[in-house]
Amino acid sequence: MTTEDILLQTVASLTKTNEEQGRQIAELTAELKKMSAQIAWFQRQMFGRRSEKNIAIDTQPGLFDAAELDALHESCGAPDTEEDRETEEVSYTRSKGRRGTAGIRETWENLPVLETRTIEPEGVDLTRYRRIGEETTYLVGYEPGKYYRIAVVRPKYGLIDPTEPVERGKGVLIAPLPKFPVYKGVPDASLLAEIELQKYEYHMPFYRQIKQMAHLGMKGLKEATMVGWHKRAMELLRPLYDLLVGEVFRSDYVQTDESTVPVIDSEKGQAEKEYLWMSRAVMERLVVFFYDRGSRAGDVVKARTDRHHFRGYMQCDGFGGYTAAYKPGGGVRLVHCMVHIRREWERALGEDRKAASWFLGKIRELYHVEHECDRAGMDSEARKAERQEKSRPIMEEMWKWLETEGIRFSQGSLTGKAVTYAYTRWEAMMLVLDDGRLLLDNNLAENEIRPITLGRKNYLFCGNHEAAENMCVIQSLLATCRNHDINPRLYLNSVIASMPYFEKASEDELRVLLPHKWKEYHPEAIMTTPVRQLAK
After folding, report:
1. Global pTM?
2. Distance set, CA 411 to CA 416, 418, 420, 508 (Å)
3. pLDDT digit string (tens) for 1-20?
4. What is the dihedral sign for C-alpha 493, 451, 283, 292?
5. I need a surface site. Which of 113, 325, 345, 355 has the fewest CB within 10 A?
6. SS3 at position 254
7. Euclidean distance between CA atoms 481 and 531, whole angstroms
8. Distances (CA, A) of 5 to 12, 15, 259, 491
9. Radius of gyration, alpha carbons of the chain
10. Can you tell me the distance from the alpha carbon of 258 to that of 472, in angstroms, rounded to the nearest whole number?
11. pLDDT tens digits, 403-413
């Protein structure tokens, strides 16, 4: 083979390689353009406007060449030539922005005035004065299916005889404004209560509430305004919440559970799965939720129990955070949940039906004893005696079976996992035999979590850690109202209106506003049919 032939082969090989590389470059360029478009779309979805109108072209140089940009401008109706660009006329009308709250007032000025509250000056002889005018302040109230305005009228009085001596500044009299829930704001306590109920009791996000308000005549309200009202309501209710936490942990028997709640991480720009905690004083029927920047560590609940010197039974599921936080021999005695043990055995049914059916049958016998106690209306002492007689032999038989038969199953099998789960918690489970107040399971605690689960399916997430903490405040009061069969609308109307007057109140003075204390003075708020029965 001559040198010329070798050179020709080399050129052919290089040409083929060059063509292959050119093809690859073209494919990669097309893929890069496709991915760039996808990235831009995702950025718009996450950070940009969702509306399709008035879409602006990004002025930052991109990966498109000049020809493609020209084509893109042409498709958007951009001028074609320099002359066109110079002679194009743009006309617009400038609208002067409103200052203050004038634009906001249009939201409710069309609402009818259905209530008038007249406030007269106190501690003076009005016969010495003649009415010379009045000042009117408007609030927006709510009753089911109707938004309306409330006229707060304060008559002005001037002295009939101007030469009559009076105290300085008493020539003209007018009653001071009462303390409204929002300082210099328009929402009445009834409106604030309805906003909270709609979101946290009926699971309606703010934007849906605004649509509903517009349908009922209150048009143009901004979500930012409603969020501000919500934050103020939480500021008013937080002292009651703090007091309620102490009330729960002064009990000697609480049930505790935790659940996830999506919270927006401002740094990452996305929702993160965080944890919300719940504790329920079983005998007192008081409920509190708490949140510590989304942590699931057992120290979150331990910090509360230590702060309030809790001593007694804490019933919980098998989450290891509890056993890590509360060591045996301390003042907190963990009681576990039979329902969680049963769930593990139900998973094992398909693997070893004989063993799982035997264990589930024994659990059924334990619940049969409980149902008989309920049917007989036994108090805690009678229930304890019944458990000692009937439930103890069953539970001891189950414990013995776990120690003898349970070791036959592999730790990696479903049956082995059920054995391990039950055996490691059985000693704490046996505590129910020594106190008739203790329940076999933690179901009541899990039921308190349900509104949180329903809520996150509707309003999807909390905007930040502060929003999650605020949710704990209102959900704690609402859950306690449910447990005491209190109409939450009447309760929130009353306490939101009252709290501005309790800013410097002592704990004893505030305690009368907690749901279980408040209902003693407001029997009309007790539901005829308990909410718990309606929920069933």
Report:
1. 0.72
2. 5, 9, 8, 54
3. 677 777 878 888 888 888 88
4. negative
5. 113
6. strand
7. 9
8. 11, 15, 77, 99
9. 34
10. 12
11. 998 888 888 88
